[in-house]
Structures are given as structure tokens and as C-alpha cells.
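[Q] Does anyone have a clean C-alpha cell version of this?
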Amino acid sequence: TSLWQVITDDGPVLSFNTYNKCMHAFSNPEDVPFTGTDDDPNDEQGVGVGGDYEFIIVDAPEDASYMMLKGKKRGTYNLLTPVEEGVEYESYLQDIIDFNNMYFPADAPTYDLVYFGEDIYKMEGANDGIPNIYPFDGDPVANESFNPFLITKRGEDYYLRFRDAQEVGEDKVQDFRYDKEKDAFVSVENANYYITGNKAADFFYSTIIGEITHSWTFSATSTTMSDEFATLYNNIVADFASIDYTLKAMSFQYNNEKLTFRVTCTYREKQGTRWVQKTANYNYTFKAEQNGDNVVFTYEGTDNAGQLVINKFPSVNTIVQTIANEYTITPAVTSLNLKYLRFTNTANDKIWFDAEYK
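[A] Here you go.
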């Protein structure tokens, strides 16, 4: 906290004229110690991080619905909106944090798509609020352009506002409202400008054919599967239980050299009065091919260990044969967060399951 006052200086100016540990951390003209290297110290002395502590009041309507400020020294515009009456500030901030974590997760390395009219851009690294936005076919380094933004909430709507207006030709856009039906942030200035996620099938396929492949997991306790698929899965759980094993999870990881899916079962084995957690890996060979928004899994066999499991537990063979089909891949929650994907059998839409990226 600190003192503040409105002074007359080049019009009405809001000044935080005593030390404020939040405001002055950005406005103090000191070197930023954690930037640069020994060879290139990147000295910011005299500039700091380029913030302000005094702001020209550009607009402040009588209904107090918002206030537009402009940094006196740096010229950065800041839109202030009041927290709604009855809403606790801490709750509001947690709501914003939860929304940001869901729609811009740090642990799903995919990109978002920015549509500026007919032009398409990639937006990478949005989880930290400073994404790199560059032409879709461009190089992320040669064409890098970092564009800070903040998420706010007004009523029931969430907004994404870039610090600086995005200019495309003669158009300028800065504020985007999240449209749940379209699953996109749509510009409030021009509806032809919007931000959405990458295609789910493209992202999934890239994770199983790249140099570094990843696993997709569903849990024995998961509720994110259809009743028909849950029945198939629970049959495996029951088979494990028949020999005093408790199946906890199954994961599928594609080996792009051997063209196999390694199925990892995590289970607990009863040893006397104790339960010991163990894992076992089984290789089932599938051919995976992308077909537009779908992926086709073709089963081609297994190794000796995998065959022994099939012989012992017919339920495993049933689910393997069920997976060996064509599946439509869609976001389980939102295209902006492809950590969770839904796989729906194209021949029977009552067979579907959600999987989590690991």
C-alpha cells in the first residue's frame, strides 16, 4: 500500500507519490539483476523494466465503469475496471488465475492460432502472459514478436487484453472476449479477428510421431469415459482384482521406431497384509495414421508378454480390439488447452474416453 493523489500536470494525473512495492518495482530506473549474462550484462540502469508510477487520466466516465490511464513517461495505456460489488478481491484474482491455468496451461506444449482477418499467426508461450506471435509459416526466432496480455473478468465474461493494440494494415484490435460457444477469444472491435486453439488431431498426432513422444493416460477412477467404454475398462479392473491386483491406471505411449504402443499398467499387488504398488509394460503394435480430424489405429499384434496377458485376460484383448478403430479427436475441455483430449469411435459414438497428456 502507499499514498496516491490526483495532481494537475499535463491534465489530471494519478500519482503514487510514496513508495509502493508493486508499482515502483516496475518504475524504478534500476538495472534488472536477473537479465543478461556475464558476456552480455544487458544493463537496464536508467530504464529498469520500463514501467510508470504516474498516469495521465485519459478517460473516467461518471458511471465509474472504467478508467483509462496512460503512463506519463512510457506512454503505455492501462484500462482499469472496478471489481463488482460484493466480490472479494482475493476471490476475483483466484478466479482469473484458475481461468488462465485452464486455457493457457504451461504443461501442454502446443500453440494457439490467431486469426487476423485472412492472416493466420501462431501464438506460443501464452501461459506466462507474454506470448510470441508470429506468422503461421514464419520462424519463431526470426519473426518473434512478444505481446503481453492480461485476463480480466467483467460480469460473467472473461476478456483478454493486449498491452499494445495489434495492428494489421489499417485495423487495430486490443480487447478479446471469450466466446464459450465458439471456444475462442473474439475481438470486441472486429469479429473477424479471434484467437483459438490448435486442432486436436494435429496436436495428438505430433505427440506420437515426433522425436520425443509422450504418453496419454486414463485412470481406473476416471469418470471421463462413456458408459460403454467404462464397462470394457472395468472388466480389466475386475480381471486384475481376481488375482489380488488393484489396477490404478493405464497409459499408452507410442514408440515411433518400433511402431508399437507400450501399454503401462500401474497396479497394487497384495502381499500378505500389505499392498505394494508396481508397474508392468506390454507392447501392442498399432499403426496410427491421421485422417483429417480423425486418427485410425490398426492393430498388428503383440509380443510374448503381451500375448500372455491377452490369453489370461480376454478383457484386455477386447479393449485392444476396440481401440483398433478410427477415432475422432476433439478437445475434452477447450481447444486452447489440449492437455485433455476426447477420443470418440467413429463407428459408435457411445464409445469414447478422455485421455490426459503426460
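[Q] Thanks! Anything notable?
[A] The chain is about 20% helix and 40% strand.
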